[in-house]
Structures are given as C-alpha cells and as structure tokens.
Structure to design on (230 residues):
C-alpha cells in the first residue's frame, strides 16, 4: 500500500481546520455561511445525542431538540440518521487530523513527527471522551455504511503512519520491514489502548499512557535513536 493523492487531499482539508477555515468556506455568501453554521450546529447536537443515548436509541427528533431547530430542518441537511452519523464521523476525523497536523508542525524529523502524531491522537481522545465513544464504540456495527466509513478512516490513519515509516526507512532511521503490517499494527495498538480506557478504565489515564505507548511504538519499529515529542 503506497499512500497517494487521497492522503494529501485529506491532510490539506485537515490543515484548514488548523487555520480555522472549513473546506469550501472561502468566498461564501452570508446566507451560505449561516447554512454552514447550522450544519455544524446540527452535527454538534448529533454528537451530544449519540454519545448520551447511543446510535440506536437516538432519533432525528433528539438531534433537532438539542440543535434548537425543527426536525424538518435536520432532514433538509441529512436524509436520515445513518447519513447524519456518517457525516459526524467525517467531521470528527477531520478535527482529529487537524490536531495531528498542528502537532506535527511543532517538531522536526520524521520520527519526531510520527511520535507527535500518535501522542496528539491519544490526547485528543483523552480530552474528548464523548467523541471517542462515538468513533470507537457507538459506530462499530451500527450499519454497513457506517462500518464502511470507519474502515476508510482506519485505512487513512494506517496510510499516514506508513508514509512516515517509509521515510524513516529511506533515511536509515529504522530497519527495512513490511510497512503495511507495521502501520496497521501501530494503529491497532493505539486503538486498543484507547478502547481499553473507555471500556474498563485501563489504562486509568490516557494522557499518562502516552510515554509508555511511544516507547513501545519506537521499539517495535526498531528506532534505536528517536526524538520524543514534547
């Protein structure tokens, strides 16, 4: 698997979140901006509903009530609950990637950037427990379309990790290895640590787990000399 244009496009969108501008927001009229604001307000309300009541017990009426709009307005933006949830997953993924882009910009060197990416992703979930539950618990098995969206997000994250690993191999910082397996294993490791915290409180602190997680990651890929992100 070789990361390509799709990764670049997603990272460009993520950078827009860092800059405080949503994709496609530039040059919008006042009416279009208000529509964009309402769209985001509905997504925020959906996040509250799904994290509180779960996907299956939440309704479009719940979302409308939390957003302070008529249920018909919600349907103007989303044809149904499944489409709303998929859009919410997209939005949360862009927020996560935006935070990762910002963290990477503060360090130099591919291993430091890899470490910053992993640390920031864990810290985002630690600071947003309700969002973490939506992505890692409520979404799983909710519907085929939602499972497909989750799979695409996992694939993207693995491709981002693989890009860093490939550069590190080319620079002689880590030994040659099966990059596809390594990247998927690293993403899976982070996933299990976060999921364990959400389900049974182990580890007790996600923030506190970052040093041990990074140590495991760097040892796993054979990085003898690395620079941990601050």
């Amino acid at each position: 698997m070789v990361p390509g244009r799709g990764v670049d496009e997603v990272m460009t969108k993520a950078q827009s979140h860092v800059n405080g501008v949503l994709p496609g927001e530039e040059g919008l009229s006042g009416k279009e901006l208000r529509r964009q604001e309402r769209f985001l307000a509905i997504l925020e309300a959906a996040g509250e509903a799904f994290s509180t009541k779960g996907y299956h017990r939440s309704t479009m009426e719940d979302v409308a009530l939390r957003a302070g709009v008529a249920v018909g307005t919600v349907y103007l933006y989303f044809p149904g609950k499944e489409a709303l949830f998929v859009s919410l997953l997209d939005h949360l993924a862009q927020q996560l990637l935006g935070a990762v882009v910002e963290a990477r910009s503060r360090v130099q060197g591919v291993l430091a950037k890899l470490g910053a990416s992993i640390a920031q992703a864990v810290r985002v979930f630690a600071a947003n427990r309700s969002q973490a539950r939506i992505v890692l618990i409520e979404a799983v098995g909710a519907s085929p379309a939602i499972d497909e969206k989750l799979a695409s997000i996992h694939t993207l994250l693995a491709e981002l990790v693989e890009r860093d690993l490939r550069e590190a191999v080319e620079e002689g910082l880590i030994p040659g290895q099966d990059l596809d397996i390594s990247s998927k294993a690293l993403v899976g490791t982070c996933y299990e640590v976060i999921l364990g915290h959400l389900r049974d409180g182990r580890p007790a602190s996600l923030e506190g787990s970052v040093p041990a997680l990074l140590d495991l990651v760097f040892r796993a890929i054979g990085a003898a000399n690395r620079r941990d992100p601050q």
About this structure: Residues 5-19+81-220 form a domain with the Tetracycline Repressor; domain 2 fold (CATH 1.10.357.10).
